[in-house]
Amino acid sequence: MNSQQIKPDISIKSVTMGGIPYRIVAADVLCPNGACGIYCHATGPIITGAYAALVCSRCGFVVLIETTEDFVEGKGSYTIKDSYPKKTATVDPSVPKEMAADYLEAYRCFSVAAWHGCAVMVRRCIHQVVEHFKAQPGGSLYSQIEDLKNRHLIFPVLAELAQQVRVLGNHGAHPYDTKGNLLTELEMEDARSALDFCDAIFDQLFVTPAKIAASKQRVK
Ligand SMILES: [Zn+2]
């Protein structure tokens, strides 16, 4: 069962449409639409008790949620017990298997609001990428990413994305840096950024080259 904590700013308000009273829930939910698929603000009517049908503000997709307790006006915090349909993450088949597995694990972390775990798993993806392209062995992840950039295997902007994933992963894995400074706690936006950056890296290194190869094959 997929348990998500709705943000505390959830609100329930009453509206009347066509003379019929409705209670409307507003919350942040993980949108199950594959083309959207991120945490979005969603609103919609309570159907009965602990059930509400919410519409994603980004894509308009409807997700049915069930909370652990019935909706009560004035109460500010609920936990989603179940939702329908489920969000399923996918990775393009051109992405090597070991990286795809790490990415999907990162996505599973994201879907249960495990922001730190998500960032650590995306960092693991980047480690797999640098190993795949045989970056200088024994170096730190920082220097391995720089090595790929210096060998013109990745564009500078892609190296910057990879370095930021490395930093987010460090924040996910460690409460303090090497000098003992407290590291920032990660939030949803940080985990989402790590996944987005990894998508961009996969896209340039694996997905786009596979598309070009397929196109060349077609017009040969
Ligand atoms: Zn959506």
Describe this structure in words.
By secondary structure, the protein is of the alpha+beta class. The chain is 42% helix and 22% strand. It contains 5 helices and 7 strands, in the order βββββββααααα. The protein has helices at residues 97-111, 115-132, 141-150, 156-173, 188-218, and strands spanning 4-5, 11-17, 20-30, 39-48, 51-56, 62-67, 79-84. A 7-stranded antiparallel sheet has the order 1-7-6-5-4-3-2, with no helix packed on it. Strand 5 and strand 6 (62-67) form a beta hairpin. Helix 3 (141-150) packs antiparallel against helix 4 (156-173). The longest helix is centred in the last third of the chain and has 31 residues, at 188-218. It is globular.
Low-pLDDT sequence parts: none
Q: Ions, cofactors, ligands: which are bound?
A: zinc ion
Q: Main sheet, how many strands, which sense, barrel? A: 7 strands, antiparallel
- Mean pLDDT over all positions: 87
Strand order of the largest sheet: 1-7-6-5-4-3-2
Based on CA atoms alone, the radius of gyration comes out at 21 Å
Strand content: 15-25%
Distance between the termini: 49 Å
Give the % helix. Answer: 40-55%
Structural classification: alpha+beta
Order of helices and strands: EEEEEEEHHHHH
Number-wise, the strands total: 7
Oligomerization status of the protein chains: single chain
Question: How would you describe the shape?
Answer: globular
Tally of helical runs: 5
